[in-house]
Design goal:
- Helix content is 67%, strand content 8%.
- It contains 33 helices and 10 strands.
- Strand 2, helix 24 and strand 3 form a beta-alpha-beta unit.
- Helix 9 crosses helix 12 and helix 23 packs across helix 24.
- The radius of gyration is 32 Å and the shape is globular.
């Protein structure tokens, strides 16, 4: 206490004393103004007018304007990305549409004053350069995402399918350009330049979007997923190398003069492979772990990235190729690549890349397509793109020995264009090879072909559904089906112990499905593959110890609550087990504000929170994610408050009302499967007043002597907590329990809160 008073006295003395000194200096200094002509900065306006003018001036400052643009872009991209996720599309489509919405096609057309204020022409240069930095980082990540070991293993088939998926659409694109050149080529542009860019734009595959779709659909671990990833990797390397050659030809004006540029580019590639790559491999070997990635090491890699991008830009094959090449030659150590990607991808994908989408949208003028003839040409472009990429890839895959289902799936996946298409189109637009009209048409084609990937795969799976798989699903539906969804691997053991008691009995039962959803990203396969192995290692170890058959599922998701619930509903599970979470937003004013801001970016939460059921669940002490899962799931949900559960040998079941009688069914399963001892507390006389329930419990007691104990109107205390391993409550019961503020909560065992779905 004395120390506190002493510190207070020191603070007041120092601040007060020096503040008085400053005041004295100002008074004394004002006397020095005598005889000096002092210019007044007063405008003559009222103080309020000066304040308003100052705010208006600050709003128009380039930095303030750029920050306002970034905020608007991120909010719009997240909103439309969420809407696309809701209809089963990758978020990248929504982000591309966000750019079109904020551009002259929508906001600029209907609200020109607002568009001019937020995106004035003079500010677009800053937006372009920042987006280019984000794109360079993104291409660097794409290069690191390519696993060249996969290419070596399946190089034969992959090269055939990949090159067929490039050559066929490239040739068809060149043929299309023959008919479009006269009406749509910029004045003074050679046919070769126009045709080459249309050809390469038809040939590209969006590797990150493809990888994302496969992750969401669980194809990444399948045979067809491996083939598709391999083909996409080979496609990426070939397409970007071909693009570098095309850029050199376009800039040089002819193929002969471009040979010098191509020759210099080959020297660059040789230097990167034979000089830079061994050096980077040496650095990766010595500093391959997360702990060894010091700032100096990170600085070295970023310096090489920038120098490589600068070199390719100066050579004349675009800075993006240099970034991509740097990513490709990064050390093969998966741990190193994963650690480095983590340092780059969040800033690149969340902050900088949406700027590129919007910048593209600001250049896309849908209003130019104001004639039926132009939309007819757009339709032809889409048909040629699909015929070349989808059909060409499918035929090539069928030729190398794939069945029709796998061949068509590969075709659908390789037809995904997404961001990579936009990159090529913007390069062509910047070089003056593409007119605004053809640019808008090609952007529509990119959106359409990417949009159709998911539905096409769904249709293919429906048409070619395996009868053996259908029979397997029917057999799996027999027995009591439990879905365990977990976020933290450290807490999954307790969930598995409970699942075993419910699902696996003597001579019966079905495998427990264990689901883990990871917050989605477009790239970083290294991280996801490594993470999947790590996260399920604990699950598999515990399952072996419990002799529990399990089926693991891993997917990425942008709406974990919705996807967990949909998996439980789609699989026809009898019980969904989850762990209770703790919201980061509760308890502080700032946290509440951030929760509101986050919900704006996740409109689904707002819509779901408007229901009466959601408001009811809010009264219980669940975090937001738990409430949403309970609300959306058609299956009963068990929420575990884990207190290091070791077993379910002794189970406490408080019964607060007749509606809690369903808990006895779960108790019976624990009796039969795990030999648990049940203690039922008749908290309000619900058992005493319900003859049917009382008779049912007495029957259980006769079947399992000494394992069923009914205690009338008992007051919960620390003594009974300490004698049990697990307490089972209904959602209503948990509400009663928390409101009662019972003593001895520090001795509370693990608690399983069960929702009833009648």
């Amino acid at each position: 206490m004395k120390k506190r008073y002493r510190n207070t006295a020191f603070y007041v003395g120092v601040t007060g004393g020096f503040a008085f000194l400053v005041y004295c200096l100002i008074i004394a200094g004002s006397k020095l103004e005598d005889g000096v002509s002092v210019v007044s900065v007063a405008s003559g306006n009222t103080p309020w007018a000066d304040f308003v003018q100052s705010i208006a001036s600050n709003l128009g400052h380039p930095l303030a304007l750029l920050l306002a643009q970034i905020v608007t872009i991120i909010l719009t991209a997240r909103l439309l990305g969420w809407l696309c996720n809701r209809i089963g599309q990758p978020a990248v489509i929504g982000e591309i549409i966000a750019g079109i919405v904020l551009g002259p096609s929508l906001i600029g057309y209907y609200f020109p004053a607002f568009s001019e204020a937020l995106f004035p022409v003079e500010s677009l240069g800053n937006l372009q350069f920042i987006s280019q930095i984000g794109l360079i980082l993104f291409m660097f990540i794409i290069g690191m995402e390519l696993d060249l070991k996969i290419l070596k293993k399946k190089a034969g088939d992959a090269v055939i399918v990949s090159h067929a998926s490039i050559v066929i659409p490239f040739a068809l694109g060149m043929a299309l350009s023959y008919f479009l050149y006269a009406n749509f080529a910029p004045e003074g542009v050679r046919f070769s330049s126009f045709g080459l860019f249309l050809g390469i734009s038809m040939s590209v595959t969006a590797f990150p979007v493809l990888a994302r779709i496969m992750q969401e659909r669980g194809l990444h671990r399948s045979r067809i997923g491996t083939i598709a990833i391999t083909c996409a990797a080979a496609d990426d390397i070939t397409a970007w190398s071909l693009l570098a050659v095309i850029i050199a030809i376009v800039k040089a004006g002819s193929f002969v003069s471009a040979l010098y540029t191509i020759g210099l580019a080959l020297l660059y590639v040789a230097a990167m492979i034979w000089i830079v790559k061994p050096f980077l491999a040496r650095v990766g070997k010595l500093h391959g772990g997360r702990d060894h990635l010091t700032r100096s090491i990170v600085a070295i890699f970023f310096l090489i990235l920038i120098m490589s991008s600068w070199a390719t830009e100066v050579i004349g094959i675009h800075a993006l190729f240099g970034a991509f090449m740097t990513g490709v030659i990064m050390p093969d150590n998966a741990k190193f690549r994963s650690s480095f990607i983590e340092k780059v991808e969040d800033v690149a994908l969340v902050l900088l890349l949406p700027l590129y989408f919007v910048y593209t949208g600001l250049r896309t003028e849908m209003g130019l397509l104001d004639d039926p003839y132009l939309w007819k040409m757009t339709g032809y472009i889409i048909l040629v793109a699909i015929a070349g990429k989808f059909v060409g890839s499918a035929i090539a895959a069928k030729y190398v020995g794939q069945n029709w289902k796998d061949s068509l799936t590969i075709g659908a996946l390789m037809n995904t264009r997404g961001l990579m298409e936009l990159v090529i189109l913007n390069i062509g637009y910047d070089l003056g090879v593409l007119t605004p009209e053809i640019f808008a048409m090609m952007v529509i084609m990119a959106l359409f072909t990417t949009f159709m990937t998911g539905p096409a795969i769904a249709v293919i799976n429906r048409i070619f559904r395996d009868p053996v798989a259908v029979e397997g699903e029917r057999k799996a539906a027999e027995g009591f089906k439990v879905l365990v969804s977990f976020a933290n691997p450290a807490r999954v053991k307790s969930l598995l112990r409970i699942a075993r008691g419910f699902a696996v009995g003597e001579g019966a039962g079905s495998p427990v499905t264990v689901l883990h959803l990871s917050q989605g990203k477009e790239v970083n396969q290294y991280k996801l593959e490594k993470y999947e192995k790590t996260v399920f290692s604990t699950v598999l170890d515990e399952a072996r110890r419990l002799d529990l058959p399990v089926h693991t599922q891993f997917r990425i998701s942008n709406d974990i609550e919705k996807d967990v619930s949909e998996e439980a509903n789609r699989g026809g599970f009898d019980l969904l087990l989850i762990g209770i979470g703790q919201s980061i937003y509760e308890g502080t004013v700032l946290g509440s504000f951030l929760r509101i801001a986050t919900n704006i970016l996740r409109p689904g939460r707002i819509l779901r929170g408007m229901t009466s059921a959601a408001r009811y669940l809010t009264d219980a002490s669940f975090d937001q994610r738990t409430r949403e899962i309970i609300l959306l799931s058609k299956a009963p949900v068990g929420v575990l408050l884990d207190r290091e559960l070791k077993s379910a040998d002794k189970v406490l079941i408080p019964i607060y009302s007749k509606d809690d009688s369903f808990l006895t069914g779960y108790g019976e399963k624990l009796l039969q499967n795990a030999g648990s001892k049940l203690t039922l507390l008749d908290m309000t006389g619900a058992i005493r007043d319900n003859d049917e329930l009382r008779e049912y419990l007495h029957t259980l007691g006769r079947r399992h002597p000494g394992h069923v104990n009914i205690i009338p109107e008992y007051i919960l205390d620390s003594d009974i907590y300490g004698r049990h391993d697990l307490m089972m409550l209904s959602v209503d019961g948990w509400k009663h329990f928390t409101e009662a503020a019972t003593p001895g909560l520090q001795f509370l065992p693990s608690v399983l809160i069960l929702s009833y779905k009648g």
